[in-house]
Inverse folding.
C-alpha cells in the first residue's frame, strides 16, 4: 500500500466538545481504483477532493454503495474496530446487487486498519464518541449509457463523531411511500435507497416527527425499518424484530443485539410484525418498548409512534429497558470495558 502523509495536519480543528455528526474529516483517506478488470494498488493520501468528469457514470446511473462503521478508543488508548468483517461482506453484497466489482476483503481490512492507525489522533477520547468510518464504492467511467461502468473507485474517509440522536424519537408509520420493494435493492447499502427516503422523511419532519417507520411496499401493513435503523418491539418480555429480507438492511447492530439477547436469555422472535398487532399489544398493555438500532445511534429509544390509527406514547422504562441494556452491553464490548465472548473486537492500535 502506498502511503503519502499530509504535510498540513488539520487536527487542531478537532474539538471534542463540539463535533456535529459527519462534518469534520480526518487527515487521510484511502483510495483504490478498479481498471482493466483489476483492482489497482491501494493508496493512503491526504484527505482532499479529486477531479471527476461530469459524464462519470455514478452521476447518471447511480452505481454507488457505501458502508458505515466506527473506531473506538479504550481507557488505555488502544483502538478497536467492531465486526469490520461484516461490513466488508455487506459492501460486496451491495456491490454485487449493483453489478459492481467485488472488493478483495484484504484491501478493505488492511486499508481500514492502516488508515485508522495513521489517523489515530482523530479517534475521540470520550466514552460514547468515536471515529466514524465511511467506505464507499462508485462508478467512474466517462460514458452516458445505462450499463455497468468499467472503472470504479473505492474510497474510505473518517469523521470524529459524538451522539447521533440526542433524545428519544417520535416516529410515524409510513402509509404511502416505500424505501424498498421485494426484488429491489433494500438489502443493499445503495446510495439511491437513501435518496429515495429523503422526500417522505422530509414530509414526516414537517408533520413534527423525527423519522419514518418504513412498511412493506405491498400492503403498508408490516413494519420493516425505522429511518436508517433496524427496529425492535418489546411485547411483554419478548423482543420482536422483522426478519432480514431483500427489503431490509441486515444491520450489524441488529445482529449483535440478537446474539446478546440470546446470551442473556431474553426471548427474541424474528418475524413479521404488523401495525395492527402493535396497536392491539398497546391496547392490551403488552407494548412496553420500541427502539431502533444502527452503527451511528447504537440504540435509539422510540417514545412515540403515530399513524394508521395509532397514537402511542411509551414511558421510559429506566433500568428495566431492554434497549438500554443492549446499548450498554454493545458499548462495553466496543470500548473494551467488558469481555468479548463473540470475538467482535479487532484491535488496530
Ligand atoms: C437502512 C438501514 N437500516 C439499518 C441500518 C443499521 O445497520 P448497522 O447496524 O450495520 O449500522 C442502517 C445503517 O447502516 C441503514 O442504513
Amino acid at each position: 500500500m502506498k502511503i503519502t502523509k499530509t504535510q498540513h495536519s488539520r487536527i487542531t480543528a478537532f474539538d471534542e466538545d463540539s463535533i456535529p455528526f459527519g462534518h469534520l474529516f480526518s487527515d487521510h483517506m484511502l483510495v483504490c481504483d478498479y481498471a482493466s478488470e483489476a483492482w489497482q494498488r491501494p493508496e493512503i493520501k491526504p484527505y482532499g477532493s479529486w477531479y471527476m468528469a461530469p459524464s462519470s457514470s455514478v452521476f447518471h446511473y447511480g452505481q454507488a454503495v457505501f458502508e458505515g462503521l466506527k473506531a473506538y478508543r479504550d481507557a488505555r488508548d488502544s483502538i478497536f474496530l467492531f465486526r469490520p468483517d461484516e461490513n466488508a461482506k455487506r459492501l460486496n453484497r451491495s456491490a454485487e446487487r449493483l453489478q459492481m466489482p467485488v472488493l478483495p476483503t484484504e484491501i478493505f481490512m488492511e486499508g481500514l486498519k492502516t488508515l485508522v492507525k495513521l489517523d489515530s489522533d482523530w479517534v475521540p477520547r470520550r466514552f460514547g464518541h468515536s471515529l466514524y468510518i465511511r467506505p464507499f464504492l462508485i462508478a467512474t467511467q466517462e460514458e452516458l449509457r445505462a450499463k455497468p461502468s468499467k472503472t470504479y473507485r473505492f474510497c474510505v474517509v473518517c469523521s470524529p463523531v459524538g451522539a447521533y440522536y440526542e433524545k428519544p424519537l417520535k416516529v410515524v408509520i409510513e402509509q404511502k411511500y416505500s424505501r424498498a420493494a421485494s426484488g429491489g435493492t433494500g438489502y443493499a447499502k445503495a446510495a439511491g435507497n437513501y435518496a429515495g427516503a429523503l422526500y417522505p422523511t422530509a414530509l414526516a419532519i414537517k408533520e413534527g416527527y423525527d423519522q419514518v417507520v418504513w412498511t412493506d411496499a405491498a400492503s403498508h401493513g408490516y413494519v420493516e425499518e425505522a429511518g436508517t435503523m433496524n427496529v425492535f418491539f418489546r411485547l411483554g418480555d419478548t423482543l420482536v424484530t422483522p426478519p432480514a429480507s431483500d427489503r431490509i438492511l441486515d444491520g450489524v447492530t441488529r445482529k449483535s443485539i440478537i446474539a446478546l439477547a440470546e446470551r442473556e436469555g431474553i426471548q427474541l422472535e424474528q418475524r413479521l410484525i404488523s401495525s395492527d398487532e402493535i396497536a392491539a399489544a398497546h391496547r392490551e398493555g403488552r407494548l412496553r418498548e420500541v427502539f431502533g438500532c444502527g452503527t451511528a445511534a447504537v440504540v435509539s429509544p422510540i417514545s412515540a409512534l403515530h399513524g394508521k390509527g395509532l397514537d402511542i406514547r411509551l414511558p421510559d422504562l429506566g433500568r428495566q429497558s431492554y434497549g438500554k441494556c443492549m446499548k450498554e452491553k454493545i458499548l462495553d464490548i466496543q470500548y473494551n470495558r467488558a469481555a468479548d465472548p463473540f470475538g467482535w473486537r479487532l484491535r488496530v492500535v
The chain is about 25% helix and 30% strand. The longest strand covers residues 130-139.
